[in-house]
Queue: 3 jobs
Job 1
Amino acid sequence: MKKNSEVPKTDKSDFEQKTRVLLEEIHHQVKTVAEQYSDIVEQMSEIKSDVKDLKNDMAIVKPVLEMHTTYLREIKSELGSVKMVVVNSSHEMNDHEKRIKKVEEKVFS
């Protein structure tokens, strides 16, 4: 009977061959992961650059937006004043029309 520590040559060479195949496959997978990692690092660098550009753009846009918001509030306030003047003018025009009609009635009757 064979001892457990003794492995026949054919089994040993078969084992070594399978081990080499597994090592080659593992090496290929590690290489693939390393390439993907490299791509991810490159993409992250581009994303960081894009975020930096966006922050710079926002630093410019934000004060302009605040200024426009202030202008719009002022315009809205002034528009309310203009509306009041127009409404008052409209009432005065109606009063003038009534007066003119009364005068015309008296003059032409």
Job 2
Amino acid sequence: MKRLIPALMLLFCSGSVVHAANPASTQGESLRGLLAAQTLTSLGRMSEHTSVIQTMRAFRELAVFRAFPRAHPEGNTRSRTNTSGSDLALPDSDVSGYGSQGSVAAGQGPFSGYHQSYGGFQSGVAADLNFEPILTLYYQGTVFSDSASASAYMVQGLAGTGSTTTPTDCSGTVGVPCQIEAFNTSGGKLDLYNVAQINYCVIETGYQGDPTLINQHSADVTKVLADTFLVGITEAKQACASSSPNPVPQPQPQTTVTAAPSPTPIPTAVSQPSISISGLALVHTVKKKVKATTTLKLKEAGLFVATYQAENAGTLTPSATVTILKGSKEIANGDMKSDKFSDGTTYFYAAFKFKLKTSVGHLTARVTVTLGSAMDARSLNFKLKKK
């Protein structure tokens, strides 16, 4: 196993149906138009990347896009005493099978690298959706103490992308302060960042992916990004409609005088453990070289590798399992072992060798990591064929 570590590092370092809301079809079409225009502008600046290596996985049709959009009715204001990150979450049924969704702590989340700080941060929710080989889609909704903090966060995000193109204002399209940050390159890939402010909340979406495949399937790409963005904006318009995330109830007239209760001690905040999968791959050995693959042969050894990040573990020990599915039928499972690369990146791994001919076909590996009560999961599709 130790001999695989340098090769695995190179693989990881070099490289879900989400049913989104469409509050108004014209709004969705307009937003997609803006995104498509940014795509064309940015691809025009990618001439120096024409030799970008094609994805190592053969393109599989993204049938999930056909499910868009599913309307989420507006106007159903929720009864609440305060707003939390969970109010901005994507529907769990939409995320299931295509990625993970979890809470955001200060300084964490898919877009944390864009921001100098989380001033006024209260809570948040983030999703990481796998639409490979084309792209990975990111979503984040964050609640702040006031609109000024939310606005400052939005400005930091736009300034932190490092983009060299001019952002597109989409405020008139979605009805709230909104910007689409132009593509920039990162390791030969395309990046896009969308951000919108709804009172004291901020919704962010974006993706990173292969420029050639994004260009080939730009209609699907802009559709899934626009519709997911509109889901978050719709949820935020409902959840963040009040003037404060923690509204204070108005006092009622009192007819009698009662003794004031003793003050209740404020509990000390305790950081909760969290764990998330940052990468998942299937690797095998070809001519003594470790390579990533999406195809195995019968009786060929394959190694599933999942890099992960754990926070506030304390005395808890992370653990992981992998389940192999053929359709909805489980055909194998096992515990994964833990190790780390020389740069400190932690990962789980498990080796499998499939011997039964009945296993031949399209399979799915479902990796689940846990840390105490915290959990994350990610799936990887691969093919098992005869020799």
Job 3
Amino acid sequence: MLSKEEIAEKFKKIPLEVKRIVEKRLELFALEFGDQIAEIFSQILYRLTGVILIALGSIFLLQSLALFLGDLLNDQSLGYLIVSLPIVILGVAFALLRPKAMVRKTKEKMTDQILKSFKKDGN
């Protein structure tokens, strides 16, 4: 059987053990959170790279279309005007209307992705 001194010694160790467990749990949470942030940023970087490549391809495609239309109409500026007009109208529409549904949908999608990644790591 344990003596009173041994029991007292065991009780003295309990707060230290609890403190150590809490510290380890916080360290684990920080590591998991950092991993999630790194994963999200890598996905953003990957998608951003894709968007940039698509944008560059689109620029060359629109340039070619403008030159082609300019040759057809015998006026290069008219070719560029025809190609740029829909883009400008679309840009103005986005700037003035700020489609709230699109912003909300994007926000919900990002939130769902973050929650799914946390749930996946939690299980």
